[in-house]
Specification:
Number of strands: 8
Oligomer: single chain
Strand content: 5-15%
Bound molecules: thiamine diphosphate, magnesium ion
Shape: globular
Helix content: 40-55%
Number of domains: 1
Distance between the termini: 52 Å
Radius of gyration: 19 Å
CATH superfamily: Thiamin diphosphate (ThDP)-binding fold, Pyr/PP domains
Strand order of the largest sheet: 2-1-3-4-8-7
CATH topology: Rossmann fold
Largest sheet: 6 strands, parallel
CATH architecture: 3-Layer(aba) Sandwich
Order of helices and strands: HHEHHEHEHEEEEHEHHH
């Protein structure tokens, strides 16, 4: 796939930005000012960026607990992301949601959820809404391999196929559900792809290769926009950090150092940087400029968060469902 240099630069920039934001969160997490669990997506940046690069602002996504990358790649505001982690009123969920409950409907991000698999029926329902309203946009659902253990995925795929919905199921297979490896939870490599191809377009891609992800999702988006129905794309990747918290907080003993080192060498950001440098699509000074721009944005976002007020105590009953 031949892409213009500007598009390639953007893909790289977005991945670098997500990585740097994750590292900044990790480095400040032990200060205990972010009173929220965080699930870092270090190592998985190519999935978020490759998927969202194919989408328009008015396309929908639904996300999961490991959702910082999805939020930023879809155009979510960095300042309001960091303010949300700091529990401030200026956060994207007004400081009530924390890291696992991000949303920015202005850019088509319709929420992440701490309920594993919770975003799957939401995204499928949004696909139904698009179809009923005769719109041309698409609904993309990000979920992990742990969510693929849940029955709701199979109900939702069935419904999406039955109604030919413009839904794209993105399985972010990082091989683990907390500390349980996929081989202990799934009966075979391709159980996710049980549906006949004429009903559901399915594809497995290297989720650490942003161009592979982008290419597959582009085709799925075209299919969805032209009434072809749903697709299922499995992106094979790896969670380099622990399940939750910062590096020091990983549970010991469920994976080997060798396995982690193997995947670190397949870093999606470093490998794409290398590729673009080698093919002279970017040079070192442009890379340095990107790094500086990102550093400024991150500093600005943390400063914004820290100087923002906490929600006022009297607003506690607001934003709750009331029958
Ligand atoms: C319905 C439900 N079951 C169990 C949990 C506990 N839990 C939180 S994260 C997680 C693992 C999810 O794994 P996966 O979907 O692969 O996402 P990953 O953490 O690997 O990104 C589990 C089991 C939960 N939050 N919700
Ligand atoms: Mg997983």
């Amino acid at each position: 796939m031949k892409l213009p240099p500007k598009v390639l630069h953007n893909l790289l920039f977005e991945m670098m930005r997500i990585r740097r934001v994750q590292l900044a969160i990790e480095s400040r997490y032990s200060e205990n000012e972010m009173q929220t669990p965080v699930h870092l997506c270090i190592g998985q940046e190519a999935v978020a960026v490759g998927v969202c690069a194919s989408l328009k602002k008015n396309d929908y996504i639904s996300s999961n607990h490991r959702g910082h990358g999805h939020y930023l790649a879809k155009g979510g505001n960095l300042r309001t992301l960091i303010a949300e982690l700091y529990g401030r009123e200026s956060g994207c969920s007004k400081g009530r949601g924390g890291s696992m409950h991000l949303a920015d409907t202005a850019v088509g991000h319709y929420g992440s959820s701490s309920i594993v698999g919770g975003g799957i029926p939401v995204g499928t329902g949004m696909g139904l809404a698009i179809k009923m309203q005769k719109k041309k946009n698409v609904s993309v659902i990000f979920f992990g391999d742990g969510a693929a253990d849940e029955g709701v995925l199979y109900e939702s795929i069935n419904f999406a196929v039955l109604k030919k919905l413009p839904v794209i199921f993105i399985l972010e297979n990082n091989q683990y559900s907390v500390c349980s490896h996929i081989s202990r939870r799934q009966a075979g490599d391709n159980v996710f792809h049980a549906m006949p191809a004429k009903h559901l377009m399915t594809k497995t891609v290297n989720g650490n290769d942003v161009l592979q992800v982008y290419d597959a999702v582009n085709k799925a988006v075209f299919r969805a926009r032209t009434g072809g129905g749903p697709s299922f794309i499995e992106c094979q990747t790896y969670r380099v950090r622990g399940h939750a918290g910062c590096e020091a907080q990983d549970i010991a003993g469920y994976r080997t150092d060798g396995e982690i080192e193997y995947w670190k060498k397949l870093c999606p950001v470093a490998s794409f940087q290398k590729k673009l440098l080698k093919s002279k699509i970017i040079d070192q000074s442009e890379l340095n400029k990107m790094e500086s721009k990102i550093a400024i944005q991150i500093k600005d976002a943390f400063d914004f968060a820290i100087r923002s007020p906490f929600p006022a105590p009297e607003t506690l009953p607001l934003y709750l469902f009331d029958e």
